[in-house]
Structure formats: C-alpha cells, structure tokens
Amino acid sequence: MTIIITYRMICASHFRKEIDMDLATLAVFRAVVREEGVTRAAELLGRAPSNVTTRIQQLEAELGTQLFHRHRKRMTLTEEGQTFLDYAERILNLADEAQQRLDPSSPRGTLRIGSMESTIASRLAGPLARFSRDWPEVTLELTSAPSGPLLNALRARRIDCALVAFPSDEDPAQADDLELLPLFREELVLLLPSDHPEVQTASDLRLRSLAAFAPGCTYRKLSEDWLLAEGGPAPKVQEVPSYHAMFGCTAAGACISIMPRSVVALMGPPGAVREMPLMQVVTYLACRAGFDTAAFNAFRECVAEATNLHAERGHAR
Fold first, then answer.
1. For the chain, is the Cβ count within 10 Å smaller at the N or the C terminus?
2. Pick among 3.90.230.10, 3.40.720.10, 3.40.190.10, 1.10.10.10: CATH of 104-183+283-304
3. Phi first, then psi: what are they for 58, rounded to 5°?
4. What are the backbone dihedrals phi and psi of residue 42, each rounded to the nearest 5 degrees, phi first?
5. Mind telling me which residue stretches traverse the membrane in this protein (predicted)?
6. Digit-coded pLDDT (tens) for 38-59
C-alpha cells in the first residue's frame, strides 16, 4: 500500500511549499533512527546504503531542516528530527492498523506492546511465547516504561496497547478514551535491609531514602503516598534503572524499596532483605477505545489466559 502525505507550509513570504512523502520514505527514516546509522538500516531494509542516504537527504531537503546529527560512527536526531519522528511513528502505525482492519482474517502485521518492567519480568514470558508460536506472521515490538509514559505513548498512537497500573488518585473508570481489561493483582511489598527492625507504619522507618524509577511510575507514586501518610517528611528518592538495582541498594543498606512480590521472587538470595506486605494493585491491559485488530485480539486472549483474577475477571469496557 502506498500513501502520499502532502505537507503544506506557509512561509512569511506567503510562499507555499508542498512536500510529498510516501510510507517507504518514513520507514527508511525510522530505520535510520533505530539503527543510528545508514549501513545497519540498509541491511535491515534490504536496500543499498546509497539508496538510504539519498532518501534521507531528499527528505531533509524537502522539509528544509536537518533531521540528523552526523557523528563519526553514528547518526542521532536533531530536535527537529525528534519532532518529525513522533509524527512518522504515528503515521506508520496508523497505516499498519488500517491494513490489519481491512484484512481481519488472521493476525498479521506488527503489534506494538508497552509494559511495565515488572510485568514483563514476572507475567509475560509465557503469553509472549505462546503468541509467537501460534501467530508467527505477527511482528511483536515490546517496549518497557513506567505507566505514565506508556499511557502517553498509547494515546499518541506510538504503541497499540499497554500493561499499566494506576495510582490511587486516578480512577481507571474515568479513562473514557481507553478500554481496560484487568489482568493481574500484584501485592506490593516494602523491602528493608535484613538488619532493619520490624516496621508497622512508615513512622518506624530508620531510612528515608527510597530507591525507585523516574517520575511516571505508578509504584513510585504509591510508595511516596504511603511514606507521607504518617505526616513525615517526603522521602529522598534515589532513581535507579532496574528492579535489580533497587534490590541491590536495599540489600546493601542504602535505601528502602517497594515492588511487586512477584518480582521479589525473581531476585535473590533469600534473606538478603526483609519484606513487609503493603497493598494490592491491579495491572490492566489498556488499548485505545475502538482499537480492534486480529493481532491485538489474539494477544489479549493469550495474556488473559495467564490472569490471576479468575474470580474477578471482567470484560473490557
């Protein structure tokens, strides 16, 4: 399928410029972004490097702006390139969705899944393996991020669906632009250094430093809310890139951390930290309202088979 995208730009001199781009050009641009260079992008696309270089140069000339910084061994996006990438991703994803909707006979195409890191680690291995086995014609693109950025990406059409959790001050029922399927109930536990005395409330903590992900993480927000519930000072947050880093900081006695028990079960060694149950949180499979492709429906069925909410499981709104 070929789609021509016409962009009209009115300059100060009232000169009108028309820029024509097809999906192939946008795909070349995205490949160069992902591979950070022409050579690897050309290999991925099955094109000659000279062809890829020419496409990018023509695109920059038509747009009238530089999209890439050319370094010695790689290419990185300029500020304008980052803005253009956002639109290119949405256009390509929407075109792929349209193709799938017009031919719903069986799952095919690309399915872009976003998920919290904890869900990938503890819940998705089995469903993803089954999906790949049953539907080999579907290309899965899996990205990991906190719930806030995932929901932003979902609404911006950069991804097709997301496994997310909501903080206590957000009611999932109010997300009218999304369809939500509750899938997993996670027990959040407070992790303390092994020599820390038993804790009944946040006021019993000797440490006020919290190892957590960057803002936008639902579990971080819930952790901060719980720590403030006793009226104490706001915790000092030590931002870390992974649950293993959280666990390590806590085991070393530098911080406390809060994470799902299902993730703690993947860590070790036993006894390196002390656990205290805190609260339960539901993980939802979210998609845009009305999103309906064969690939997504097949994935939803696959992941729903792994739910631990058998008694509570409902249907998507």
1. N
2. 3.40.190.10
3. -65, -40
4. -65, -40
5. none
6. 999 999 899 999 999 999 999 9
